[in-house]
Amino acid sequence: MIEILDSTLREGEQTPYVNFLLEEKIEIARLLDQVGVEMIEAGDPSVSPNVATAIERIASAGLNAEIVAHSLARRENIRLVKECGADRVAIFYATSSIHLDAKLKKTPQQVIDLISEMVSFARSLGLKVRYTPEDASRTDFNFLVAVCNAAIEAGADRISFADTVGVMQPHWVYERIQALRQNLLPCKIDLHCHNDHGLALANAMAGIRAGADCIHTTVNGMGERCGIPDLTEVIMAYANLEGVKKYRLEALLDLADYLEKVTGFFTAPNKPITGQNAFTHKSGVHTNGVLKDPRTYEPFEPAWIGRDRKIVIDKYTGKSAVESRLAEYGIGVAADELEQIVNEIKRLGDQRKQIFDADILEIAEKVTGRVIDVIPHEIDALVMLEVESHIYTTLVVRRMRSFRNVINIFEITGEFDIGALISVENVMALNNLIEEIRRIPGVKRSETRLILKKYPGNGKEKTDRASSIRDPQPQEKLVDSIYLFNKVQQND
Ligand code: HCA
Ligand code: CU
Q1: With a 6 A CB cut-off, is 357 part of the ligand 1 pocket?
Q2: Single pTM value for the model
Q3: Structural domain boundaries of the chain?
Q4: Quick one: pLDDT at residue 451?
Q5: Using CA atoms, how far apart are residues 10 and 7, in angstroms rounded to an integer?
Q6: 10 in contact with ligand 1, CB cutoff 6 A
Q7: Buried-most residue among 113, 173, 258, 303 (CB within 10 A)?
Q8: Homologous superfamily of the 3-263 domain (CATH)
Q9: pLDDT tier, 484 (very low <50, low <70, confident <90, very high otherwise)
Q10: Would you give the DSSP letter of residue 454?
């Protein structure tokens, strides 16, 4: 049975430009504990007072997970770990000749002596000890065995096999872990696999197959450079492919969202499981299959992880998807009408137009000649925000970008500082999103306008949307198409 050590608070905070606040760390630890990970690596207390305090607070929070603190192989650092109240110290010290020659200037025997001494010292303080041979994957095998066995003899009960620069392959990890198992004294083996070649999760799974015990993860796969395996992917891969059901799935989405929100580190839409497109179907063939039986194009029920299936209507869409979308509104159309509606959708799609439910209803109205008097499920709205004068507008923009339903954000001139185009499934979701937006620190006032209809304008956008977000052009106008709005909410 696998174990998980989540290192969002240590490896994850080594993600470029990511730093957590104290309260954020405590919230992350709490959510990780809800998921049921066996160990939480809470940080290295020598990094900064914030890190040390966070470890202290997390260690005394009464969580079920074992609290691990990272440490260099130095007495004063190990003592700090003890003072923070962590259950375990993870002492790391590189073992590859590249690191020994270039960075540490130590001989193999000096390393063995130092590790024995530091592990014994940590044990004398009453700490459990993991020893990490950093860059283990590029370390001479016999030396690796010697130094790990020295650590185990001195009292370490875990070894973390670190593929520090992500150069392993699954078959290779399998052989190496099997060989380690045969040569190491009794201990648990952790796998710390970096994702530099996109193989981190595959490598970790191969290592577990070969007899290792534990996988290191971070939320959203954060970490130095390309990070390490994503917590949700590890849990879902083991749940679905290996039948491991011991972790609680409910908090996983919250964790992924929360991390995006507080770090501004956004995951790609095609990211497995938590990515925006993970359960969205587009081509006619796929949507037709999914509407008949979702198993045709889904590896598992999205509801298992609290997500919804989505079907995109655009030029790839077939008749069955459009028919089913209209049926959701209680609208039935004749076969020839359906064909005309689909053709019109394809025509619009060819113009690269994004098609909302409001468009489909309008097309259906034109084609059938009947009045269709229903409210679209998908609601688009413009949210305008005024920001407190002492707060940088971009800070609020960054928060806004972390919400899944925010399509576009603009810094603007005039009465409001920010305008955002949002798209949600229903009125309740709209209310919730507005509530969340209003809670963003620095937001003074918000005003929301529902979009009833939208029309393509005659002009062309000067920049693509993504680049206008990254690099706002003051002369860009908030609205690039004409909208008719209806004011729904105003607050101070
Ligand atoms: C690093 C250290 C480490 C340690 C892994 C571990 C690595 O280089 O920052 O202690 O299990 O990747 O080797 O993260
Ligand atoms: Cu690492």
Answers
A1: no
A2: 0.81
A3: 3-263, 280-368, 377-491
A4: 86
A5: 5
A6: no
A7: 173
A8: Aldolase class I (3.20.20.70)
A9: very low
A10: E
